Amino acid sequence: MTLKDFLKPDKQANLEVFSVSPRLIPVNKSINFNLYINSSAREGVDRFVCIWKAGKAIQENDVSEIAKKFGHIYIAENQRNHFFKDLGDNKNLATKEKVEILKNAALDHLDQLFHNTDDMIQSESIKKCLVECEAAAIGLMESIRNYDLFGLHDLIAELDFHDHYTLDHSINTGLYNMMLFREINPNATNEQLKIAGLSGMFHDIGKIKLPNSIINATQDLEPEEYIKIKQHPIWGRDLLQQEGIKFQRNHLNIIKNVVYEHHENYDGSGYPNGLKAEEINIFARMTSISDFFDAITTKRSYHTPLEPLDALGVIENTCGIKVDPYLFERFKRKILKDEKLDSALYLPKDFDPCCPHTALDLMYEDEIQKSELNENDQEDVIHYHWAKKTQLPKIS
Ligand SMILES: [Fe+2]
Ligand SMILES: [Fe+2]
């Protein structure tokens, strides 16, 4: 096929576009987005022309011919979702490369929100960020479709780190959420998976209001700093319920619930409202597992991460206390089959995955037994051991 055979170009005025590397366009199959070139020869003047229509298969030599002749290839902003979905689905690219591109797309927008020095975070930039992260979540969902927890953990460890821990952690939590949701519910729809991903990406959005000295603290926090950190679910909820954030209402409501409830604990000991069990939104209950897992398995400069299996053991020991035992059990059974965890490793009951820690304050079961001698700790010990006796709620 030569360029003459291409569809007659459509002229589009005022089109918002982004340029894309030719090698990211899936070949030998029909693509779900239009391709544009800039036909203007005048400096500072753009005239985007559609040169390939969605729904038509494109071959490798077509792409290289277009790239050779016109230099840059563009895609319309309003088709970014389709491009990211096709990118995630592109079998010719390595998963690491795809995830890196999609992660960076979401990170750029989250980064802009976190670096907005205005006191008022404009609802327009939050909406833009939601839309951008939604597109990235669609591509990421396709990219990691066949990954289990261990594969995903290895993939995340291979990706480049952003120097802002909270942003990296937010994307990771979104990735784990999508995988977890699919493992727990194999019939999950793409919409549900997308919301799970977005919820993870936005769960700590309220930290925008925290000073960097707290977000990046390299030593244990002072009590008044911890009080501030505990405000982030409320701040995040308030940011998302500002007037003028136009996003699908149901989706936005779930994300808002996750932001507000991801620090609630299954036994009612969490914050801000001490909600219990099924009072906590199911997406928030899942996000707290993903949040916890990422916080203790990801390398931060000042603490050594746990291996995935140890991390699962630690989380299992908080079943019925912090995390939903039903969700965790179902998730664990899917990836570990009959393998028993029964870990002797514990974290203190008040461990907060969203707080910076100088070290993971791990304890072994026998250390807890020793502390049984101390009457003051008696209640804590009962709490730890109760976890293992918790009955799973019956959910069909
Ligand atoms: Fe948080
Ligand atoms: Fe978090």
Short description:
The chain has 396 residues and is mainly α. It has helices at residues 60-70, 80-89, 95-114, 123-143, 149-158, 165-184, 190-202, 212-215, 223-229, 232-240, 249-261, 282-297, 308-316, 325-336, 365-371, 378-389; strands at 10-12, 17-20, 29-30, 35-38, 48-52, 57-58, 73-76, 345-346, 363-364.
Describe the structure.
The chain has 396 residues and is mainly alpha-helical. The chain has 2 domains: 3-82, no CATH class; 94-389, Hypothetical protein af1432 (Orthogonal Bundle), CATH 1.10.3210.10. Helices cover 49% and strands 7% of the residues. It is built from 16 helices and 9 strands. The protein has helices spanning 60-70, 80-89, 95-114, 123-143, 149-158, 165-184, 190-202, 212-215, 223-229, 232-240, 249-261, 282-297, 308-316, 325-336, 365-371, 378-389, and strands spanning 10-12, 17-20, 29-30, 35-38, 48-52, 57-58, 73-76, 345-346, 363-364. Strands 1-5-4 form a 3-stranded antiparallel beta sheet, with no helix packed on it. Strands 2-7 form a two-stranded antiparallel ribbon. The chain is globular. The structure holds fe (ii) ion (2 copies).
Characteristics of this structure?
single chain, binds fe (ii) ion, 16 helices, globular, mainly alpha, 396 residues, two-stranded antiparallel sheet, 49% helix, 2 domains
